[in-house]
Amino acid sequence: MINRVLIRTKVVQNLYSYMLTRPDRTLDSALKGLETCLEKTYELYHYLMRLPVELTHIQEMHLDEARNKYLPTEEEKNPNMKFVNNRLVAALADNEQLQQFASDHTVTWNDDPIFERLMLDKVLKSDLYNDYMSDDDDTMTGDSLLWQQLMKLVIIPDPNMTDAIEQRSLFWTEDDTELMGQFVCKTFRRIAEGDEDAIMPMFKDEEDSQFGKELFKATVMQMPENNATIDELVENSRWDKDRIVLMDRIIMCTAMAELRNFESIPTAVTLNEYIELAKNFSTAGSGQFVNGILNNALKLMRRQGKVVKP
Q1: Does the global pTM surpass 0.90?
Q2: What pLDDT does 238 receive?
Q3: How far is CA 234 from CA 33, 125, 255, 283, 284, in A?
Q4: 118 vs 113: CA distance, rounded Å
Q5: Using an 8 Å Cβ cutoff, are 99 and 59 in contact?
Q6: Homologous superfamily of domain range 206-303
């Protein structure tokens, strides 16, 4: 689930922090920080998976309180229970894997009742909820689709969600929430389809689980050499090496380390990924600059025999 695109992003972000805090921070502590960062990202996936369960439970309690109050109305005595009987939510609540993770990592929104009330209010006032409650469709597919759409269109984009996520962990950003929201919706779909392995593992395989750590170490070890290469290439271009921002250097050094050390990753994939990182995380002109330097660096490393793959 945590794919290499996300791993590269976290490696670059953690390298930036590491370079700013040297020499007070060791490589081992930086690697531990990267590991924690990736673990926290997977934890966010579980937090988002937990939210429908807890919001549904709150609504169920509200309906029960209204039913048992003094002189309830007919509607309160016989409420529409479709929302609280949602099959997807029941499957999430009963999933032993999710239960175990929530218990081990204390994954709950119950410590933020104001946020829960705000989110539930948004859900209950949405057109998606009203259409769902009035629709005769009563299937797992329809139940799953409701929460996929609520996540995508109501919950994830809401500013209250952004605030709650960022306050809950320094490791989480709005971009993380959007990406994990996509994986959550995919999981909801797989549950509806009866997939017994719907809950995604943290990494696809052992190779991916080691990728971030190996890339981080290779970048640090080869950074002096790769920085010298960057300076050499910049001196022969129209760019001024003294004006290269730290983030651009980190992105280029990481890309060069990947080009040199990961034979199974095509060069075009590496170049495209880090050019995009430069566009997203650095200055306005960084994409063009990083593109030019990395393409020239690849040609030079090929001539030097440091890169032999296509």
Answers
A1: yes
A2: 73
A3: 32, 56, 16, 17, 18
A4: 9
A5: no
A6: NusB-like (1.10.940.10)
